[in-house]
TrEMBL record:
The lineage of its organism: Eukaryota, Metazoa, Chordata, Craniata, Vertebrata. The gene is LOC101168001. One of its GO terms (cellular component) is endoplasmic reticulum membrane. This is GDP-fucose protein O-fucosyltransferase 2. One of its GO terms (biological process) is fucose metabolic process. It is found in: Endoplasmic reticulum; Golgi apparatus. Its EC number is 2.4.1.221. InterPro entries: GDP-Fuc_O-FucTrfase, OFUT2-like. One of its GO terms (molecular function) is peptide-O-fucosyltransferase activity.
Length: 442
């Protein structure tokens, strides 16, 4: 076949080239979205932050192998820390660590580093929760790519003392190989999200065991420089998991508008799903969004997140075979009288072929190369999540943070928890415990 099929939507067309409509609309989605501010004046400070005095910047990074969705979780912990610092009177701003070099983002030869948060999330929405700046804004405000102090977080070499867990934090010698090295001028060089010109003035290791706010006194008193970066920030735990503060930050992590538009258009076109009919109307200003639990109906399709790759390489007993998954999918479609199924998956080409053979009617979001260049792997993942979040019934994969983020999105949209907190069972799994319902707190 001479032309690219943009979306493999077997139910609508098999080998015809009806792609141009979608091709245009993805460009249109990018073009249509101007950074309009939907928040009323009280919610967000739009005054140039740099004008303030004694401003301090918190930067952070995460262990390189961690994926997109765990990183989103670490953002919540860091936002919580900044809120604590600000409550204590410090004028702190959170610097958004550019996306890139993620292990899973391997789509061929497109450059997927130095991606600003604005490509994936609505910055004005984040701003309404806690002051944030993109990394390049930090460089501009800071007068150069210099970070005063990097603190590499680590556990305690000796583990828990007296076999007891207690909160503690101490400056300690680094015990892992340091990922920073001194240059000729005495500055520290490192990954820094792919910004080679970035340098740190000082790097030290800190053993930390505790919640994110354990850092607050240390940042206020021990390291009084302007910019401090926490590396291996995932070492710090959530202050309160799934409490009001957690949910405020989570709700503020609104996907970038162009990605939502593309997802919505796809739903309308291939899944007969619109917000008005499905009762999933989204408020552009998240601070005003409060859907009643059970109020969302969702589009007439089953949403599926089927995590493969490293989840099957380890032969985990809580992950199904493809055959097992298809059996569950067909049962659920019958049970909920749904004729369509949307599948989000990271399955490889072989497995996809197998899946398509067993489930010829499945609907997938499969961008062309050109679209992928615009959206990047992260954008495609978000669109997959957005579509799964609007399904009448959702089933995900056991302990996948990708699935967890879909649970949260559905919680925000107001779905009945019964339609959300579901997962596949392994073929031979005896006790198939279903995911926990984390109720939204306003
Ligand atoms: N587009 C798309 N990408 C997926 C899907 N499942 C996994 N991925 C990709 O694989 C990556 C791994 O999943 P993540 O959840 O981000 O990684 P993680 O934080 O290690 O989380 P889990 O491994 O799922 O617990 C995602 O970031 C995506 O890039 C999917 O259904 N659709
Ligand atoms: C911070 O300073 C206090 C008081 O000087 C000291 O006791 C503590 O060990 C320091 N903590 C860290 C993590 O540097
Ligand atoms: C680097 O930081 C450590 C720990 O705070 C401090 O003891 C040391 O003096 C700093 N070095 C420089 C060159 O500022
Ligand atoms: C889409 O859904 C509406 C409302 O449920 C229904 O009336 C219509 O027939 C559906 N259209 C298609 C093409 O299935």
């Amino acid at each position: 076949m001479a032309c690219t099929v943009f979306y493999i939507v077997a139910i609508y067309f098999s080998s015809t080239c009806s792609f141009s409509v979608f091709f245009l609309s993805i460009f249109a989605a990018f073009a249509a979205v101007k950074s309009e501010n939907v928040f009323s004046a009280g919610h967000t400070s739009t005054a140039p932050i740099a004008a303030a005095r004694d401003l301090r910047y918190l930067l952070y990074d995460v262990n390189p192998p961690e994926g997109f969705n765990l990183r989103r979780d670490v953002y919540i912990r860091m936002a919580s820390l900044v809120k604590t610092l600000r409550k204590e009177g410090g004028d702190w701003v959170l610097v958004l660590p550019p996306w890139g070099r993620l292990y899973h983002w391997q789509s061929s030869d497109i450059d997927q580093t130095r991606i600003p948060w604005g490509e994936f999330f609505s910055i004005t929405s984040l701003q309404a929760n806690v002051p944030v700046v993109e990394y390049e804004e930090f460089i501009a405000e800071n007068g150069g790519p210099f970070i005063d102090q990097v603190l590499v977080l680590q556990n305690y070499a000796e583990g828990w003392t007296n076999g007891k867990w207690e909160e503690k934090i101490d400056e300690r010698p680094c015990f892992d190989k340091l990922m920073y090295s001194k240059d000729k001028q005495g500055y520290y060089r490192g990954w820094f999200w792919g910004y080679e010109e970035t340098r740190a003035r000082n790097v030290t290791c800190v053993s930390a065991q505790g919640h994110a706010s354990i850092m607050a006194p240390v940042l206020q008193r021990n390291y009084t420089v302007t910019s401090v970066m926490l590396d291996r920030a995932e070492t710090l735990l959530h202050d309160v998991y799934a409490g009001k503060d957690y949910w405020d930050t989570r709700r503020s992590m609104v996907f970038a508008k162009h990605l939502r538009l593309i997802g919505d258009e796809f739903r309308a076109k291939y899944l007969n799903s619109t917000d008005d009919r499905d009762l999933t109307v989204y408020r552009e200003d998240w601070t005003r969004m409060k859907a009643k639990p059970g109020s969302a109906k969702g589009g007439p399709y089953l949403g599926v997140h089927l995590r493969r790759k490293d989840f099957i390489w380890g032969h985990r007993e809580d992950v199904p075979s493809l055959k097992g998954a298809v059996k569950t999918i067909l049962n659920l479609m019958k049970k909920h009288m749904l004729e369509k199924v949307f599948i989000a998956t990271d399955a490889d080409g072989e497995e996809l072929k197998e899946l398509k053979a067993m489930l010829p009617r499945m609907v997938r979001f499969e961008p062309s190369r050109e679209d992928l260049e615009l959206l990047k792997d992260g954008g495609v993942a978000i669109i997959d999540q957005w579509i799964c979040s609007h399904a009448r019934f959702f089933i995900g994969t056991s302990v996948s943070t990708f699935s967890f983020r879909i649970h949260e999105e559905r919680e925000i949209l107001g779905f009945d928890p019964k339609t959300t907190y579901n997962r596949f069972c392994g073929d031979a799994e005896k006790e198939c415990e279903q995911p926990t319902h984390w109720k939204i707190v306003y």
